Amino acid sequence: MPLTFHAIMCFPRWGLVPLRLVVGFGFLAHGWAKWSRGPSGFGNLLAQIGAPLPQGTAWLVTLTELLGGLAIMAGALVALVSIPLVVSMLVAMFSVQWRFGFSSVNTVGLTPSGPLFGPPGYEINLLYIAALLALALASPGAWSVDAWLRRRRRLQRPGTS
């Protein structure tokens, strides 16, 4: 069967699955990078920007990104898990990226081996925030723990089918 507008509209619950997987993987990858290098290294960066309790905050952010990324990918408790992830993006945006402007790709020069990039702006933070809000407000869609739990609750209620 060819992929038509009608075929796409019959499966709207599948529309957010790619978004959920990419956003979840993004947080997981960033959390894994912090974990594999040791959260204390990230804590040193946080100390440089004047973050309170930098070592504890480093562990909190690392675990939030790792576990939050897994939860988003699985579609588990998406609305709840989105809250600390959005907060993390807002803090990063206003404490680090804001001064570099909107663009996430800041080309600052050209070398014989290619372009030289400067610090990223807050564009990616806004994209992550928008994606998390979309997932939290619309439900995570098909193949998600949240949808499975919703179906299970509906089947367990007396008088429903």
- Which strands sit side by side, in order, in the main sheet? 1-2
- Rg from alpha-carbon coordinates: 19 Å
Strand-residue proportion: 5-15%
Largest sheet, if any?
Answer: 2 strands, antiparallel
Q: Pairing-aware structural class of the strands and helices?
A: mainly alpha
Quick check: average pLDDT?
88
| Discrete helix count | 7
Envelope shape: globular
> What percent of the residues sit in helical stretches (DSSP H or I)?
55-70%
Number of strand elements = 2
H-E string: HHHHHEEHH
- The rounded distance between the terminal residues' Cα atoms is 31 Å
Taking pLDDT < 50 over at least 5 consecutive residues as the criterion, the unreliable ranges are none
Which properties best describe this structure?
161 residues, mainly alpha, two-stranded antiparallel ribbon, globular
Describe this structure in words.
The chain is mainly α and 161 residues long. The protein is 65% helix and 6% strand. The chain contains seven helices and two strands; from the N terminus they run H-H-H-H-H-E-E-H-H. It has helices at 5-9, 17-37, 39-48, 54-74, 78-97, 123-138, 145-156; strands at 107-111, 114-117. A two-stranded antiparallel sheet has the order 1-2. A hairpin with a 2-residue loop joins strand 1 (107-111) and strand 2. Helix 2 (17-37) crosses helix 3. The protein is globular and about 65 Å long. The relative contact order is 0.14. The model has no long low-confidence stretch (mean pLDDT 88).
Topology:
Layout: H1 5-9, H2 17-37, H3 39-48, H4 54-74, H5 78-97, E1 107-111, E2 114-117, H6 123-138, H7 145-156
Antiparallel strand pairs: 1-2
